[in-house]
Amino acid sequence: MTSEQVGKLIEDGRIVAILRGAFGGREEELVAVLLEAGITAVEVTLNSPDAMATIERLARRFGTAAAIGAGTVLRAYEVNQAADAGARFIVSPNRNAEVIAATKRLNLFSLPGCFTPSEIVEALDAGADAIKIFPANTLGPAYLRAVRAPLNDVRLVPTGGVTPAAAREYFAAGAWGVGIGSELVGKDVLQDGSLALLRMRATAFVEAALASR
Is residue 9 a contact partner of residue 70, using CB atoms and an 8 Å limit? Predict the structure, then answer.
């Protein structure tokens, strides 16, 4: 899957579901529910237990239907490890030019985290494909709208504390996508063997994305 194809998958669903932490080996079940709801991009953070093995399993099973990526990538060598495991996009909480360069050398989709307009432009100059606005809950949709006034072509993905209601506001402000962690895939979804809570949450976020089109 090329970087362009990954970007198209993210754009189609507009939601990056973030798996952070331990899920008792049920990650494939979780991703199956997310895909069924219409979420086509899943990020596994590298500070999760056995993250590389999880990425490998998810990429093997879902790699043609969903974009599987690695998150919390802080070093260039981690990009190589994630790519070997099957990750097709790389997400960071920060702007690291070496990580971005390593990502693009491997034709992966680059999604670094930025907080200020200067960081956004620097990340784009380094080769980033889209920008994770992080932590978005300290900035809000008004910030996104203001940034897009001079940087209207930038693909922005606010991440951090995004609820379905907030997602609607971010999309209205011009977000290209949103990144969602515990508000979507929290540990509490495992308390229900049928994963009904996850289905309900995924549906709410997908409806927010669809309403913005």
Answer: no
CA-based Rg of the chain, rounded to a whole angstrom?
16
pLDDT in tens, 81-134: 999 999 999 999 999 999 999 999 999 999 999 999 999 999 999 999 999 999
Task: Give the span between the Cα atoms of 10 and 89, in whole angstroms.
Answer: 10
Determine the structural domain holding residue 186 and report its residue range: 3-211
| Residue 48 to residue 181: CA distance in whole angstroms | 13
Average pLDDT, the chain: 96
Whether residue 135 is preceded by a cis peptide bond, meaning omega within 30 degrees of 0, is: yes
Instruction: Give the number of domains in the chain.
Output: 1
- The set of catalytic residues is 43, 132
How far, in Å, are 59, 83, 132, 175, 181 from residue 104 at the CA level? 19, 11, 16, 23, 25
Instruction: Sort 213 into a burial class: Cβ within 10 Å, 0-12 / 13-18 / 19+.
Output: exposed
pLDDT at 63: 87
CATH number reported for the structural domain that contains residue 179 in this entry: 3.20.20.70
